[in-house]
Amino acid sequence: MKYKKALQFNNAIVVLSVLLYAVISWKFEVARYVGACALGVMISMHIFFAIGAWKKNHTIVDVAWGLSFVIVAHIAFWTRDGFTVPRVLVLVMVTIWGLRLASHIHVRSRGQEEDERYKFMRESLEKRGHALLNSYLRIYLMQGLMALIIAAPIVMINCSTEKGITWLYWLGTAVWLFGFLWEVIGDYQLKRFVSVEENQGHVMTKGLWKYTQHPNYFGEVTLWWGVFLIALNVQGGWLTFFGPFLITFILLYVTGVPLVEKMFRNSKEFVEYQKRTSKFVPWFPKE
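Given the sequence above, the corresponding structure tokens read:
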């Protein structure tokens, strides 16, 4: 899929997801909880926007991304009475994942120049004028909105009526754990690889990276489908399928895989790596 079409399709998914989310919120009487989560995420995004604008470095929004899910999980959890095993477990799972991702990105980007994605966007907007407003709308508010959409299963798990613990709860937990480990291990292996001076400019092809070109992205997508499986244990939970679908589409066609491929498009080593390694879902490499 061409990048321009992917962006158009992504925007369509966001619009349809917002409309469906609004219907779900009304039908299952969770609108006030969705509103509270939206307020929390947007306050966070405004704070990070102020910091990014002051530093003229919008890479910080990637830290805000992971924290947005933690905010949603805690607001949805603490605004409802009564603790249940699924609610507590999802709170812990999302908190661990979000804080781990935010801290990982913060450490990785500390002292570094602005991410090329945001630098290009900021400089392009500065030439057209109204750069600050456009950065605010396109980078911070858009990411806050997408985080809210992706986190829809979390809200339903906490705020809708439970059907009881079924085998889907245990399956979802196992799928989440599998995805979380793939993401963490993949990030750790890549961090160790790039820390070696001799590896600069080369492609990581060992460990989990031997079986998929993007183990960290695959792990993130997988864990969100795990949360969705847990959401199937509550009324209306199945209607939040748009959450994991959106993060899957974003990482496959918008911000994840395409940007890595663009970065290494002139690398013969990466081209050879692509030929023998599964693009996304882990599989044994071709001989």
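The chain has one domain: 3-276. Try to locate this feature in the token string yourself.
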